[in-house]
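The methods section describes the discrete structure representation at length, but only in general terms. Each protein is reduced to its one-letter sequence and a matching series of backbone shape codes. I believe one specimen quoted in the main text would settle the matter. An entry of this sort, consisting of the sequence and the corresponding backbone structure tokens, reads as follows.
***
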Amino acid sequence: MRSSRPKSASNKTQVLVVTADAAFEASVRTTFASAAQIELAVLNGTLAVHEGNIVADDVTVIVIDLDTRRDDEMSALLRLMGRVNTWPPVVVITPSFDKETVRQLVQLRVADFLVKPVQPIELVRTCARVIQAPNTPEPTEAEIFTYMSAVGGAGVTTLAIQTALTLLNNAPKNASATCLVDLNFQHGACADYLDLEPRLDLKEIEPRPERLDRQLLEVMTAYHPSGLAVIAAPNHPAEMRSFDQDLVTRLLDLVSSHFNYVVIDMPRTWFSWTDSVLLGSNRLFVVSEMTVPGLKHAKHLIAAISERLGEGKRPQVIINRFEQGMFGAGLRKSDIEQALGKDFVAAIPNNYGLVREAIDRGVPLDEVKPGNKITAELKKLLAPPSETVAVGGALPKWLSLSWARS
């Protein structure tokens, strides 16, 4: 294995594209034409034809438009991967997505793959990400933010998404700095809200959770144009299943080792793995609505969590869609503070029109309305005094990453 990356003759990123698809070639040329720091080379034809013409030492990233249904193409990819090893990274463009394709590409250890039709911005971000990824990544100490709903329809998914995007914008300029994990396998909506394809194949990894490694995780991660990593499975509304704890803990073990920030959207149902997820969280939020039943449910959930996990893991309550009327008989903020006491941490203002437009367009709230009050309130929530960053004090990353090893 190579210990270092070969140096290019210039300071520019050398992108080599191999394709026999004229339309894809035209799209690639248009996509990279405006990038002054990128030098693009195109080999017109299949990998089986051009494999011997690829000089890996002169390239920063290789993009291969590959028909995985053809044996000669897969054989050529096998020989190329054996020759380049870990550098340069290879991104494969495939005409379709299926389990066998995923299995073969993971075994060959390609850096990533995309399925046609490929959005230009997705290709650019993928190339940037695989170039930035080190050959031997150092584990990071992720900060974990977990959201639970006290009542149905409280807006947990919206808050989790906006939290992840806020953390991403405040993190180092690294496309893999923040990851959003949707653990609501039955009714999860994170991918839908962001207009992404959910790529986490639970049936593929459930029989053998231990085979889930960094490479397979990358294959099963979707990326929003903002750079936000999203791990979500296709939901199955009619299929109520409790996945084995090893699967969930192995997944979160890997995620917390490779991202700076992790935001988790939890289901309301309590599963065998719920305790472990809550124990591994640095910040734990219960989201409720501005109603008397909502406040009661929030208090009941806080009591249940504290009873199961101890007072050291007492969550903080967010009241979503908060409206403070000047007159009238509705609840006031003082009523919420009196009912919840020290557990009350934030009131997120109501702006249904803004949230609905952001969801329909699959974009962040700030893209619809920069400087909106919802995002401003979340920023304040996510930047507390240093002594309260972790609920109950600093915690080891996912309980010293013991989930997958126990």
Summary: The radius of gyration is 23 Å. DSSP finds 17 helices and 13 strands in the chain. Residues 292-309 form the longest helix (18 residues).
